[in-house]
Design goal:
The chain is built from six helices and 14 strands. With 245 residues, it is of the alpha+beta class. Bound molecules: 2-oxoglutaric acid (AKG) and manganese (II) ion. It holds the Pfam family 2OG-FeII_Oxy_2.
Amino acid sequence: MSSKSHELGLKENPNPNSINNVKKQTFDLGKGSEVVYIPRFLGFDESWKWFNYLNKEIPWTRPSIRVFGRSCIQPRDTCYVASEGLPELRYSGYQPHAYSWEDYPPLKQILAAVHEMLPGSNFNSLLLNRYKGGSDYVAWHADDEKLYGSTPEIASVSFGCDREFLLKRKPSKSLTVQATKAKDEEQPARKRVKKSDNDDQHSFTLKHGSLLVMRGYTQRDWLHSVPKRARADAVRINLTFRRVL
Ligand SMILES: O=C(O)CCC(=O)C(=O)O
Ligand SMILES: [Mn+2]
């Protein structure tokens, strides 16, 4: 305990890196979906150290995936790390090899920092992405695989080039039905269909050393993407920590 806080009778904060001690932005997306953004989760220099390690040491691959029944090369490099004994991950017809945390000790240090920031979290798997430049991207999707359960918390740490991260609300099934009905009945659809407004789209610039957390029903009700950006001319590495149930 520092002498000053002792004099004032204040208790030293037991967890200086807790979520209560950093600048964070919380976005209530409604209906039980929430996003938290912490721009300076990790220090700037420390983050470059992680970036250099990851860029060099991770066994990056660029696999073939299936999108709408067609085979294509995934538009970014990837790698998967998971604790032993978990059900295997499969997305877009691709089953990544699960590397061990023990093979990449710095990943365990970043995981520990994430756990410290998010009390109660207990991530056991990690999907890594490397965007080599502005033409690498991730298309609109939700991480709604069954193995994560119905309300997964996903913690996303970014290094390197700033990239835009977009969220948009999934089209509501009932509204789609109403829209079709309105068309069938030749009534003006705009009267029945909710207009898309600002509450249905959000954009974040994910900075070097930042942490973005998606939780609640964000994967059920929202899609996210990192679109192509011609001006993003440097490498970005992103780590998404998840819990396989
Ligand atoms: O790179 C990002 O910020 C997002 C990556 C992502 O959504 C994913 O790997 O599922
Ligand atoms: Mn995702």
